[in-house]
């Protein structure tokens, strides 16, 4: 066997060991993510922090909380903004929510993999403008403690509000130094919690689940599992709202029917 092949096998074994140790220590199963994409991203992070092997990087990560948070941040792609793809939020506001409100009951909504909070806060703004925020339950979850901490803090760069209508931004944000702070009215109506989508059991009875721009990082097997879990968590007639690159091509196998683009209703 050539030296090159030996080096490749050693590198593969190093990364496989890293996956095993991460799952054993944290419950996070990196094997459920697309391997080439995840390995490339984490290799960049490892090299940037000066570690020659994933074994050394894992050992350091377990001792250094900031390094572990950096790993989570890189793994979960915490890139978000308010009103991302505005026309989809308009469909939610003008078509989906009025349909759900016909039931007359308190709505139960969930922003899954909410990152640093832009998505659930966007939802809360829409509900507040409809004067139903106080009569609606919003759960927002993410696997990353650092992202959840930022979401609860509610401080954002102005550029993350580029798609927010100016009158809406004026109602719900106030300057704080170089940042903008989200209104306490929105904050107090969102329940932020830590959750591992692949591992944890989901609550039930949701009218709407929003999970956008996350599924693209998972393997087909993991996606299939999650779509079944989301379906089981929705009430009949409830909706799953996915990202603009995450169309479900066979929704019926999960008990869904396609309605508006990127919205799927549970039959």
Automatic annotation (TrEMBL):
Alphabetized CDD domains for the sequence: AdoMet_MTases
Catalysed reactions, as listed in the record: L-glutamyl-[protein] + S-adenosyl-L-methionine = [protein]-L-glutamate 5-O-methyl ester + S-adenosyl-L-homocysteine
Uppermost EC category: transferase
GO molecular function: protein-glutamate O-methyltransferase activity
Alphabetized Gene3D superfamilies for the sequence: Chemotaxis receptor methyltransferase CheR, N-terminal domain, Vaccinia Virus protein VP39
Entry keyword Lipid biosynthesis: no
Matching SMART domains: MeTrc (SM00138)
Keyword Nucleotidyltransferase: no
Coiled-coil zones: none
GO BP annotations listed: methylation
Chain ranges of the CheR-type methyltransferase domain: 11-267
Keywords: Methyltransferase, S-adenosyl-L-methionine, Transferase
EC nos: 2.1.1.80
Protein's UniProt name: protein-glutamate O-methyltransferase
Organism (species): Paenibacillus etheri
